[in-house]
Amino acid sequence: MAEPILEVRDLVKHYPLTQGVLFKKQVGAVKAVDGVSFTLAKGETLGIVGESGCGKSTLAKVLMNLERATAGQVLYKGEDISRLSGAALKAVRRNIQMVFQDPYTSLNPRMTVGDIIGEPFEIHPEVAPKGDRRKAVQDLLDVVGLNPEYINRYPHQFSGGQRQRIGIARGLALKPEIIICDEPVSALDVSVQAQVINLLEQLQGEFELSYMFIAHDLSIVRHISDRVGVMYLGRMVEIGTDAEIYEHATHPYTQALLSAVPVPDPTGREGRERIILSGDIPSPANPPSGCRFRTRCWKAEERCATEVPLLAAPTLLTGDARHDSACHFAAEREVAAA
Amino acid sequence: MPDLIEKNVPAQGAAGSAEPKPEKPRSLGLDAWHDLRKRPVFIISAALIVLLVAFAIAPSLFTSVDPRAGDLQHHYLTKPNYLHFFQADWFGYDGQGRSIYARMIYGARASVVVGICVTAGVTVLGGLAGMAAGYYGGWVDTVISRVTDMFFGIPLLLGALVVLNAFTTRTVWSVVFALVALGWTQMTRVMRGSVITVKQSDFVTAARALGAGTGRIMFKHILPNAIAPVIVVATIALGGYIATEATLSFLGIGLQDPTISWGIDINSAQKVIRTAPFALFFPAGMLSVTVLAFIMLGDAVRDALDPKLR
Questions:
Q1: What is the mean pLDDT of chain A?
Q2: Which residues are registered as beta bridge partners of A29?
Q3: Is B12 a member of any domain?
Q4: Between chains, do B12 and A146 touch, taking CB under 8 Å as contact?
Q5: Is B22's pLDDT higher than 50?
Q6: How far apart (Å, rounded) are the C-alpha atoms in residues A261 and A258?
């Protein structure tokens, strides 16, 4: 693996639950992200998957320093950026940018496209001198496949896919090294999704970007990612290369998730076994003891309630099945891959 | 990539065909303006307001009669001559023999000045307080909201009576002061709610992710997107402030006699309503039309600015 550009260690984000109007008293916490660790290598794409409410978007916000981490470290090139503020934080922001989920709300409707893409240059004037900004914005529009003459148009004059391209151009403006994509295509039509994904891949090659790609569409994540992490209830339950996760999943949750992926082949679909999980995802304010997945797991035993499984490669397994998996009983299981 | 660009270009052409080649790209505000121009309600109310403002700025263009010159030869008993267009006796004379027509024209100034100044003051003061409360949240919000609640508990008219009683001589400015001091809370609430909604938008998060400072986020991103409901409420409230000024003047606690106000005229005319109803009708009618014009304008503006209708 290439040198790590971003290293996340035991990252925790708790949102306090308070009671009382005037004198607020903390009565608990929503454990949105609860001890997540991973590394992102230079030029790599790390996919993060998981169902709604598992903490994917919170993780992105904490990495972007839009939310303060409760505990843990985010190391960018060895420096902890999770505690930075002021000018130091502003400097780091140049290197880590974000593409948002909904292209209809992520662009200010009162600003022209030129103003939106040019705003990074106004905030960080050292990136592009004043005279060159218009040219720089037009270049960015060209890079993301939009007509540079659209610089004076407003966002509502564009389609969803075009707006997402504008959002990507804004993210690229500061020439960042890392781009965090928070479900960048889930609000788009399937045909447009492919265009945007291809654009992201092409830009990665052109600008040597590292992506953290958050999504819930497993096939898209497999397509774009080098490595994939699976999250459940604020924890990373399994992480590995896309072959390791998609072909040799060892965590029961990952297996259940993969078995739910729609298969376009009717004969294959009938032959395959679907794992139907019982119950709902527990409340992140009051997660189960031990393994968080045990309340819905068919393998759960006494041990799972008392002992938290660590994210580590199971020593008993060999080959591709031997990758980080947070399960006491990690084992492969035959599932049709996406 | 080149093939992607080529594929994309015709798609953009198709998207643009809904609006056949606009020579200038339209902002949302410009769109609203284009929409407004086609609304009869807007045209009528705007025309009325333009006329009213003209009365206020240059009343002498509409009448050469001095509205303060009383000639007791004329009195309520001199019936108006409705065929003497634009002349002193067009709408008759009031109890002191002053031309009702001239007073109707000159009375617009007090109403328009009070209406516009109070609205401006209330929007700036209330808007800033609401923005601070909505943006910062926490204890700033708590303090501002509680103060707002306290002011909200004071009835506007009763509060204004008390405040204005403290002035020995009351001018237009003392009325403006009283109404701004008591009325800003309405705008604070509207602005606060609006700012809280906009603050959570992705584009604000995106600006923060770029490293934008508080000033830029507040005034470039939040304010332009949060101001629309405030404009609407302000336009509608403007009519209300004019009515309040007239009410206060009617009650004898607003403007005082050398100043010409419809409220004062309504007050003096009520005693002779049976013998000279015209003395009441014209200032009261003018007041109603003015208030209605601003409320209709507010309605039209709300329809044009409402993003749900776009």
A1: 87
A2: A16
A3: no
A4: yes
A5: no
A6: 5
Q: What is the pLDDT of residues A45-94, one digit of tens each?
A: 999 998 888 888 899 999 988 888 999 999 988 889 888 888 888 888 88
- Chain A closest CA to B204's CA: distance in Å? 8
For B43, the token pair is 């045209």
Residues with Cβ within 8 Å of B184's Cβ and at least 6 positions away in sequence, in order, are B121, B122, B125, B126, B129, B151
Amino acid A269: pLDDT: 67
Residue B53's nearest CA partner among B117, B113, B120, B104 is: B113
pLDDT digits (tens, 9 = 90+) for B199-216: 988 899 999 999 888 999
pLDDT attached to residue A334: 62
Structural domain contains residue B31: no
Tell me whether residues A106 and B203 touch, CB distance under 8 A.
yes
DSSP annotation of B61 reads G
**Chain-chain contact of B210 with A174 (C-beta, under 8 angstroms):** yes
The C-alpha atoms of residue A33 and residue A64 are separated, in whole angstroms, by 14
B10 in a structural domain = no
Query: Strand ranges (DSSP E) for A24-156?
Result: 25-41, 45-49, 71-76, 79-80, 96-99
Of B113, B92, B81, residue with least CA distance to B265: B92
Query: Tens of pLDDT along A111-168?
Result: 899 999 999 999 998 888 888 888 999 999 998 889 998 888 888 889 888 999 999 9
- How crowded is the C-beta side of A115, counted as CA atoms within 13 Å? 16
Domain containing residue B273:
36-59+93-309
Look at residue B178 and tell me if it is in a domain. yes
State the total domains in chain B: 1
Number of A–B residue contacts, CB under 8 Å: 100
C-alpha–C-alpha distance, residues B13 and B21, integer Å: 10
Whether B215 has its CB under 8 Å from any CB of chain A: the answer is no
- CATH code where residue B184 lies: 1.10.3720.10
ipTM comes to: 0.85
Secondary structure class of B158 (helix, strand, coil): helix
Q: Are A154 and B12 a contacting pair at CB < 8 A?
A: no
